[in-house]
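Explain this record to help learners:
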Amino acid sequence: MKAKAFKIADGVYWVGVLHWNSRTFHGYGIPGSTYNAYLVFGEEKTVLIDNVYTGLFDQFDARVKDAFKQEGKEFKIDVFVQNHSEMDHSTYLRETIDKYNPDAEIYASQNCINFLEAQYHNFSDLEITPVGTGDEIDIGGRTLKFISAPMLHWPDSMFTFLAEDGILFSNDAFGQHVCHSKRLDTDYNVDEILRQAQKYYANLVTLGSPMLRMKLQELIDADLVSQIKMIAPCHGQIWTNPAPILEKYSEWGSGVCNDKITVIYDTMHHSTEKLAFQIAEGIMSEGVEVRMYYMQEDGPDDVITDILDSKAIALGVPTMMNKPFPRIGNMMYWLDCVNFKGTGSEKNALVFSSKGWGGGAVAKLEKELEAAGFNVTDTLDVLFVPDEDVLEEAFEKGAALARSIKE
């Protein structure tokens, strides 16, 4: 196979792979993805940072070789840096070490070293040097500084900072699941890239928000944020202007939200749907933005994306056998997994349902939402099909929810 490496700075190359046909990863829908790896040429040593996913070695191998060809240097990788052990970044690590240079230096966090062996069972014979914040290596005219970054998004994650060039190799942090033919943020609409980054953060990083806040403050205190000129993540576009994504991560990780409410519903005979639409009308009457999701058709990953920067949600499903309509179950598990309370925000919630006789859905949803970090401020439990009086009540409850986020 033939593939070209992309030069992102003098002596620094993207040698990752394009996974055009990937449509799901980490449990949510994606429009393809990239698995980014990087080659850094120092005066004395050449470093490969991170690796790629199953079935994509030939593309990766071709780009690595092309980078050496572009540099006009003899093929030899002296150092391997593994920022994170998850398989989409490490599948061919052992193979590349064996093939490129079995005597190379290898650096990773101690957790990463442990996780590599636990996943592949063929790393225990290698000498891998554990590193963390404060450790660095000189590769000849260039310095790689290591920064521990646990839970962004695994316990083994770390960043590698190319000090002289101001390039932060951030692995999963600041990434996006997209697959474009060009590599840089400036090649595409930045708002769309940020939207994909928001989906990525919401579904994968939210749980680590307390660690993110600590890490950003640590970088600020060490005067590293001001030195970052480029962020090269392991998925998606490379940030040649780091400011927008750093600002967004700071906001998302600190619970900064918009005057927005996400309405989530499912329905059997359209009664709960009628409530959802009236609640949305009430919210909009107060000048608050609404994002609406119908769980028969929409995925929880998109819902999570909008909840991240919403100040409240309205959640409704029919009652079935004295329980919530089962299709909402996946959504509820997702909410429990990410737990937005970790961002520092307490989002209000309105729970609503249409029932046939005994009810039960509202009480269960209320309990589960509270466990997932939401503040349930109101409920609406309706018998069968809502009449005009009930629809007016739904409207007023939507308006009240909207007012609650302005207080």
In short: The first helix runs from residue 57 to 71. The chain is about 35% helix and 25% strand. The first strand starts at residue 6 and ends at 9. The two ends are 60 Å apart (CA to CA).
